[in-house]
Design a protein that fits this description.
single chain, mainly alpha, 6 helices
């Protein structure tokens, strides 16, 4: 069986060993065994799980969501509808964040339109709006 140390697995995947230890504490990966000198040894299953984790993170999934997805992946009898529900929930969260960002952008655009873009900063309507007391 081809195994590697935590340092090699971390290096091969561009991560710090502490990140892998963190994933191990969360139950996301596990060493296949320990060496005679008690080093963690990981097999290809751990490397595959790590690739899964990295790809899921790139899609914005949280570590608890990733743990759930890994659990579903490991259980051949699990229902793919559960996987789809997790993805749809993530899409809904992204949509909500996009709505928030659109509102933030609209506010900033409106603020920028109040400023002529020349003159003394002390007279800038943007700075004045940022320092104004909130209305009750």
């Amino acid at each position: 069986m081809n195994t590697m140390t935590i340092g090699k697995l971390a290096h091969d995947n561009g991560l710090a060993t502490e990140t892998l230890r963190h994933y191990e504490r969360l139950g996301l990966i596990a060493p296949s065994r320990r060496s005679a000198s008690n080093y963690r040894l990981y097999d290809q299953t751990a490397a595959q799980r790590l690739r899964f984790i990295r790809r899921a993170q790139a899609l914005g999934f949280s570590l608890p969501e990733i743990r759930e997805l890994l659990g579903l992946h490991a259980d051949a009898d699990s229902d793919m509808g559960m996987v789809k529900a997790i993805v749809q929930q993530r899409v809904a969260q992204i949509d909500a964040r996009l709505d928030d960002l659109r509102q933030l952008k609209a506010g900033l655009v409106a603020l920028a339109e109040t400023c002529p873009g020349h003159g003394a900063a002390a007279e800038c309507p943007i700075l004045a709006a940022l320092t104004r007391e909130p209305q009750a």
